[in-house]
Amino acid sequence: MDNIFFLMLIALAVLAIADLVVGVSNDAVNFLNSAIGSKAISFKTIMIVASFGIAAGALFSSGMMEVARKGIFNPGEFYFDEIMFIFMAVMITDILLLDFFNTLGMPTSTTVSIVFELLGAAVAMSLIKIGADNGSFIDVINYINNDKAIQIIFGILLSVVVAFTIGAMVQWVSRLLLSYNFEKKPTWVGALFGGFALSSMTYFILIKGIGGTAFAGESYDLIGGITIKEFLETQLFALVGANFLVWSTFSFILMKFANVNIYKLIIGVGTFALALAFAGNDLVNFIGVPIAAWQSYEAWLASGVEASEFSMGILANKVPTPTLLLFIAGMVMVLTLWFSSKAKSVVKTSIDLSSQEDTKERFQPNFLSRGLVRLAISLSTVLTNAIPRSLQEKIDKQFNKPVISLSKKKVHELPAFDMVRAAVNLMVAGILISIATSYKLPLSTTYVTFMVAMGTSLADRAWGAESAVYRVAGVLNVIGGWFGTAIIAFIASGIILTLISFGKGAALAVLLFAAILLLARNYISHNKKAKELKAEDSLNRAESSSIQGVIFESAMNISNVLKRTNKIYTNTINGLAKQDVNLLKKNKKQGEKLSNEIDDLRDHIFYFIKNLDENSVGASNFYINTLGYLTDIAQSLEYIGKVSHKHVNNNHKKLKYNQIKELKQIDLKLEEILNQTQDAFSNQSFEQIGNVLSQKQELFQMVSDKIQTQVARTRTEESSPKNTTLYFSLLLETKDLMTSVMNLLQQYHNEHDSSVAPATIESPKK
Membrane-spanning residues where (predicted)? Predict the structure, then answer.
């Protein structure tokens, strides 16, 4: 039995490293989104600053480890073996839960997850003990630290509302004073803003950094015989006031004489501060449980008592965490920050939801988001009517965004929001977390930073008529995920604890193996999605500003579309021939994916036109027509894939041998034409297009002949209405598909050979 606990300790150590990785991947959004979204400083500089913040925060986090030992449950009520089972259940649940959210690219709270996992496992163990002693359910309150659990729940609700509201108010006032032309304001304005922001962040670093260390609890004569922590908490106004004067003066000097952009400095300091706070506050969420288990194991070994009889009241005592362990944990976190692709996907979700510009909206609107947007519009109308028109015009002037200029930057290089909003995000998040810490209020750094970013987005009018329902739906999804985290963490850890408690070593082995399999599966799935996004056949937005560049870039897209068209059409015919429902289902998804990619290109037309040179505006007509033809191709493929899958999936009669043979003949001829066309576009050999166009009539005649054959067949021998409907649908949609391809070729042929009259080009159908 002793060996089991030693093996559990090793497993917990491994799980701690894994938890650090998935935890940092999730929480990186807390301190990276403002700096990355504003593009104020280079990505490499952001990562270096954040790395130093994490390293410093990890070393300062020793005083934060108590929550895992005694914050949620009363350790004296449990024996050593029970405590170890609780810790194992918590760590297994935590890794799987956080990795699940990372794979979805959704930020969640590691604080809430660990708290509710501890609570769920402790409640489950308490019920097992109560059941064994024939006790009453009400006895659970003796085992659980009820006050702490209630504080956490109210902390969730409070932090969501307060962070969003304060963020919106501060951003509105900041924008009203600074406008979007903040860099042209007098030096003293930037200096005052810098003084306010930097002084609040300095206090934040002191409270969350030094205030969390072990030596902060020691008394020092230099500060009146009180502890550093007490000094920081009691001298709030004096410290902030002195900081404000120092930083305002320093900001003025930097801006006036060194030509320093104070907003970039604020963003850099804020990123460091929040990274430090994250490591100092949330490190306990990842290694607090394994360290508590290790300290429990040492105490049990020294006691010589049976594991089932050794009370864990010792965990109620304060035990410092070895600095070496904190250093190792900090290094793991820093490495994860640099190399985790999941961290980047979680950050992207937060940035997209707060972006000032249009993005590819990830969330679909729902009735709740539509209702909230309508309510907001109604309230806005009422307020607007209540404010004098002259005052409203002055306010609107401050919120007027500069005209988008893409002469030097591509669309993907534009910042999601400007430096004022990034600075406000960091400043407000720091202030709220500092205040909560000084008043010993439970708070989730994830909730605060995310909701502040959403509040500032709303106040900055980033959620316009074209994006509001999507952004609100996204925020609701994320918030729903937060509360889902608490519920899932509580239930899952309770179930896993029960399995471990009754199954002992065998259950542990199975659960650990299952956890490894799930992590590996999620990792493979995430990498697969990432590779799909980078696939060589994926479509790229046109970024060129001249007609020649547009022709070249569009040619590459057309080549990729035709390659995928060829594959999708052939797979459809093969799937019908073999009645392979899985192939047809997969093929249908490929058609939908192609259609979505082309829709994304169409959504980009606004920026494409903005990017054109004055003497190349004619390229817009060329590009828009090209996208129209590509849309027609994708819609035809999507329809062919859908009706084919539906036919086989509903177990209708198989197409007859002659029908399959005729479809295969069309497929082979179509493949020949598409291959020639693809080669022409891949090699930029547009003179070959004439050769392909010369085969147009032959293919159309082939399809027409098949239609006539099927008409005759239907009148004499065909007995299945479903087969007839499917066959005619395939032939007619194939004809539409080829019409779109030929129209596309005709457009390029006309552009290459000016002797061909443009009037021969047909307009896109859709």
Answer: 6-29, 41-63, 83-102, 114-132, 152-178, 190-216, 236-255, 262-280, 319-339, 419-439, 445-463, 475-500, 506-524
